[in-house]
Amino acid sequence: MPHSHLPVLFEALHNGERHVGFGRPEDGAQQTLYRVEDGQVAAAFIAGHSSEEALRAALTEGAATVVVTAGDPELRLLPPLLPQATGNALLSGFMGTHKKKWGGETAPEDGEFTPPKWFFKGFGDWVKLPGEDLNVPARPVALIEEPEVALVYVNDADGTPHYAGYTFGNDLCDIGLHRQDPGYNPYCKLCDTALTPWLFLGPPPRTVTGRVTIVRDGATAWEGPFDCG
């Protein structure tokens, strides 16, 4: 199914107040936003509301509304479920592509546990939106874009993660540093991460294809296809 037809929600600040919306806004079209508190959408996922219908019911009943137009200067989109206290959010990942993880299948339930090669990307304030500047170390060796499917989880009070949905991101890293010495991989990942503001509901795709374009001074410096999942 094309991603444009999948259920999606997003959060945004309008006049400094947090709101939630459903569906991706179309240029020039009006959209209704619903006032929510910081953490309210995340709490709805923890409570077990995972479908669009259940989330709408939990988040819109009795909520104050505002109608906005895409591109409204008073509207600022937010990364998916990012709390106001950005230090409470963690960016991380696992070394390995979708084609290398158990042969493309999920891990067998009765299989021997193999700890993943986990890496740390940063806290929530290291998340950027498309079009924003990405901060990197002062002397990178060779930066590379890495399109990824990013899964979004919410931890409850006991620390149990609850899957909320997925979005797409750029796992920018210093591949040159990694190639100098794979032991430097934890350092090469310490770059800002770009995420789209759209939280797609439902299970993540097994594979995604697309194109990446690098623009410098308004001109295309490089472009090419990608395959991730």
Question: How would you describe this protein?
Answer:
It contains four helices and 16 strands. It has helices at 40-46, 52-60, 175-180, 185-188, and strands at residues 8-14, 17-22, 30-35, 65-69, 75-77, 90-94, 118-123, 127-128, 143-144, 147-155, 161-170, 173-174, 193-195, 199-200, 208-216, 219-228. The strands form five sheets. Strands 1, 2, 3, 4, 5 and 14 form a six-stranded antiparallel beta sheet that branches. Strands 8-13-11-10 form a four-stranded mixed beta sheet. A two-stranded antiparallel sheet has the order 6-7. The protein has 229 residues and is mostly beta strands. 11% of the residues lie in helices and 38% in strands. It has two domains: 1-78, no CATH class; 86-229, Fumarylacetoacetase-like, C-terminal domain (Fumarylacetoacetate hydrolase, domain 2, Alpha-Beta Complex). The radius of gyration is 19 Å and the shape is globular. The model has no long low-confidence stretch (mean pLDDT 89).
Kindly state the number of beta strands: 16
Sketch the topology as an H/E string, one letter per element.
EEEHHEEEEEEEEEHHEEEE
Overall mean pLDDT stands at 89
Largest sheet: 6 strands, antiparallel
Task: Estimate percent helicity.
Answer: 10-25%
The N- to C-terminal Cα distance equals 15 Å
Q: List low-confidence stretches.
A: none
Whole-angstrom Rg: 19 Å
Number of separate structural domains: 2
